[in-house]
Amino acid sequence: MEITLEKQSESKATLKVHLLAADYEPKIQEKLKDYGKKVSLKGFRPGKVPASLVQKMYGKSVKVDEINSLVIRSLQEYIQQNKLHVIGYPLPKPDSGKDLDWDSPVDYKFDYEVGLVPTFTYTLSDKIKLDQYEIGQSDESVKTTLENLRKQYGQMTDGEEVKEGDFVNGELKEVNGNFSSNTLVPTNRLNKKGLALFDNKKTGDLINFNIEELFDDPINLAYVTGRPKEEVDLIKGAHTFAISGIRRSGVAELNQEFFDKIFGPGKVTTEEEFTAKLKETIAENYKRESDQWFNKSVKDYFVNNTKIDLSEDFLKRWLLVSNEGKVTQEQVDNEYTAFAQELKWSLIKGKIGEDNQIKVEHEEVLKQAKDMIMAQFGISSITDEMQETIDRVAENYLQSEEGKNYQNLYEQAFNAKVLDFIKEKVSINTKSVTAEEFQKLVEA
Questions:
Q1: Quick one: 102 and 168 in the same domain?
Q2: Residue 50 counted as domain residue
Q3: Residues 189 and 58 placed together within one structural domain of the fold
Q4: pLDDT, tens digit, for every residue of 137-162?
Q5: Does residue 136 belong to any structural domain of this protein?
Q6: Which letter does DSSP use for residue 128 in this model?
Q7: 182 neighbors 315 (Cβ within 8 angstroms)
Q8: Residue 14 is inside which H or E element, if any?
Q9: For 185-210, what is each residue's pLDDT tens digit?
Q10: What is the number of domains present in the chain?
Q11: Residue 111 in contact with residue 15, Cβ under 8 Å?
């Protein structure tokens, strides 16, 4: 067998396979001989079916399977031996392998397209200036968070009259149509006109309105009617709503039961401790959001400022083939830009790691698995007695899913190391912002 590489560009090549009959014929005859020992056919004793009949029955299918297996295995070996950095895996050219003679022991030629990782360079220095945001914690943000938590954990009660924030049960009916549904209207989703229609109404009241005037956001109309959002534009005209119940969310008291629900049994026991813990938690959340935003900024900078020429036509075809009918060509076309961005970032991270000998050891992956498991079970520290159990659970987790769990945690650890390395090399400009200002930045 002979395999040669023909480059069309830095990012795309053709692997040409010249397969001789001597490469595959002995293996095929060996398999057919083995088939002859096992095949059961009426009129013949087991193992006594003539070789010519076995060849006629199974020869072509065995040949096709053996050649496919041989070619794929040989391509993988060629890629490894020649240290080719490929993207995805080789794909047979659309016209390769057509109209072949499968009945005779002849030589074959196959052509495979392969995507290559192109040569590229990146810049990493203190001349790169990136903004990182330090989100300030105001008394107002703490107050708002506390109010939301108290509402979230408050008891639901029945209301006598509809007030803003209530949930109103009832039957929604189309006046000049057949539509009818028992539904729930969250008053905080109504616009000003809709809220005015429901305000102060009681159980048993009937409200009349044109339904398209109740909400500003079409999603809310879809939610209340139970209709697909694609049909929202068709929902119009006169409707009635017969109120059958009014539910109101109460406000949880600042007591031990509430403290335990938020932070766990016995973690805090006074309002002062609760407020301090709440501030600490908000600060941790803000830092996590700020770090995520900065990491995204790092990724965006390097992807946008590093020239990597990818083979778009090969990658689109590979995405379509590798997903085995789960996606359409239109979906691939629409999502290719996002895929290419992620691929470029992955290549950049890999090269930075390789150039700077950034590695992740097994013990680091194991520690990450143990930290994750402890967090899932709400364990902040472990005793000597628990250590062996945690270790065993972590090892089992890393070995499950055919190694995918290990690979995912390895990638997370490697990504974190590369980002930390980048942060040491670039110039970071820290800016103090309020939570509201940060939210506007994210939305923008």
A1: no
A2: yes
A3: no
A4: 888 889 989 998 998 898 889 999 99
A5: no
A6: -
A7: no
A8: strand 12-19
A9: 999 999 999 999 999 999 999 999 99
A10: 3
A11: yes
The token duo for 118 is: 């192109």
Burial class (CB in 10 A: 0-12, 13-18, 19+), 17: buried
CATH number, domain of 233, equals 3.10.50
The yes-or-no verdict on residue 240 having pLDDT over 80 is yes
Q: pLDDT band at 17, cuts 50/70/90? A: very high
Residue 380: predicted pLDDT: 67
Who has greater pLDDT, 430 or 380? 430
Asked whether residue 242 falls in the same domain as residue 284, the answer is: no
CB of 397 within 8 A of CB of 390? Answer: no
The two tokens of residue 24 are 């595959």
In whole angstroms, give the CA distance from residue 347 to residue 343. 6
127: in domain: no
**Phi-psi bin for 367: left (phi > 0), alpha (psi -120 to 50), beta?**
alpha
Summarised one tens digit per residue, pLDDT across range 25-57 is 898 888 888 877 777 777 776 777 777 787 788
Interatomic CA distance for residues 24 and 18, integer angstroms? 12
pLDDT band of residue 97 (cuts 50, 70, 90) is low
Helix (H) or strand (E) holding 182: strand 180-186
Task: Enter the tokens of residue 144.
Answer: 């708002």
**How far is Cα of residue 152 from the mean position of the Cα atoms in its chain?**
29
Do 107 and 162 lie in one domain? The reply is no
Confidence of residue 255 (pLDDT cuts 50, 70, 90): very high
Q: Do residues 290 and 398 both lie within one domain? A: yes
What is the pLDDT at residue 87?
94
Domain boundary, last residue among 85, 116, 147? 116
Same domain assignment for residues 98 and 183 = no
Strand pairing class (427-434; 129-136): parallel
CATH code (residue 408):
1.10.3120
Q: Are residues 26 and 98 in the same domain?
A: yes
Classify residue 269 by its DSSP letter.
Answer: -
- Domain-located, residue 141: no
Which structural domain range is residue 367 located in? 279-443
| Single pTM value for the model | 0.73
Residues 240 and 284 both lie in one domain: no
pLDDT of residue 435: 87
Contacts of 182 (CB under 8 A, 6+ apart): 169, 170, 171, 172, 244
CA separation (Å) from 156 to 252, 325, 436?
10, 48, 30
